[in-house]
Amino acid sequence: MYYIKKILKMVFSIYLIGTISFLLLELIPGDPALAILGVESSAEDIAILRERLGLNKSLGLRYLEWGKGVLVGDFGKSFKYEEPVSQLILERLPLTIEIAIITVIIVLIFSIPLSFFVHKVRSIRVKKIIDFLIGLCISIPSFWLGILAMFLFSVILRWFSVGYNKSFSSLLLPCLVIAIPNIGVFTSYIKNNLEVELREEYIKYLFVNGVKKFWLNCYILKNSIIPVIPLIGIMLIDLIMGIVIIEQIFSIPGIGRLMITAIINRDLPLVQGLIFYTSVVLVVINFIIDILYSIIDPRIRSER
After folding, report:
1. Are the C-beta atoms of residues 14 and 279 closer than 8 Å to each other?
2. Other C-beta atoms within 10 Å of 176: how many?
3. Which of these, 112, 109, 115, 293, lies nearest to 192 by C-alpha position?
4. In this model, does residue 143 exceed pLDDT 70?
5. Alpha-helical segments (H) within 153-298
6. Which of 78, 212, 214, 218 has a CA that sits 20 to 30 A from residue 11's CA?
7. pLDDT of residue 145
């Protein structure tokens, strides 16, 4: 019953997000036909283009046609690119997902051992320095860090390419730039969870009964990671929704850059399609995180 409720909520959320995004974009002032042709175009040319794009139809009729198209994966054609919206999104989405996955892996690889190291530090002075460095990582603006990293590692040292060149190595630097603030957040979060977990009675019981340090750390890590799972979901959602600034700096043709282009050109079908696709990904990730969380901690299902 728990899983059925989650599936129904997911489907309803997708429908609601799609409807709201369609209505909001349709109610925005301005004429897409005028934006495409320019202010110097004649009224006759604008009327012809509006008819060709279907903008002369009523709002209700456009919504029904859009809804029918969504059910079969057809979001219409882009005003700017004159290509199917689905095709444009599916060309960019895999790259954004790849960046998100690489970034999450980097964050987990660095933050988990780092949190154990920080937790074991006993010197108050060293702890203050580490806390300052973690806070610095979290607060560094991504655009400044991206420009600095590109200048240092791409221009001076030439370890990485200046921009994206369709190779895996060209994604490593932007992923590291995105990962640094998240490493600070995850390290701080896991460290606090470790401090709470070490006070639990079962840890004392296992230690007294001679459980090896390796297995004791495994128990502690497992229970410290569980509260972090929703945080991983939030980070994934943030990454997939588009790291616009980083994509601009490193010339990565991802979802974020496509969204900016669509908004500037008032490309309504493309904007609607992007909002719907990213919303579906967002809702599905939340659903997976909820299911995963309920499997790891069965008490969640009984509470709901």
Report:
1. yes
2. 19
3. 115
4. yes
5. 169-197, 201-208, 213-225, 229-240, 244-249, 255-264, 268-296
6. 78
7. 85
Q: What span, in angstroms and rounded, lies between the C-alpha atoms of 137 and 120?
A: 20
Q: What is the DSSP letter of 158?
A: -
Residue 256: what pLDDT?
79
pLDDT at 276: 82
- Residue 120's identity, in one-letter code, is K
**Whether pLDDT at 257 is above 60:** yes
In terms of Cα–Cα distance, which of 176, 150, 153, 170 is closest to 95? Answer: 170
Over residues 218-250, the pLDDT tens digits come to: 777 777 777 777 777 777 777 766 577 787 788
Q: What is the CATH number of domain 94-256?
A: 1.10.3720.10
Helix (H) or strand (E) segment spanning residue 214: helix 213-225
254 touches 247 (CB < 8 A): yes
Backbone angles phi, psi at 158, to 5 degrees: 60, 40
Q: Tell me the two tokens of residue 248.
A: 């601009």
Residue the block writes with tokens 């004159």: 82
220/218 Cα distance (integer angstroms): 5
Give buried/exposed letters for 107-116 (b at 16+ CB in 10 A, else e). Answer: bbebbbebbb
| Tens digit of each residue's pLDDT (9 = 90 or more) over 151-194 | 888 888 888 877 778 788 888 888 888 888 888 888 888 888 87
211 CB burial (10 A radius; 0-12, 13-18, 19+) = middle
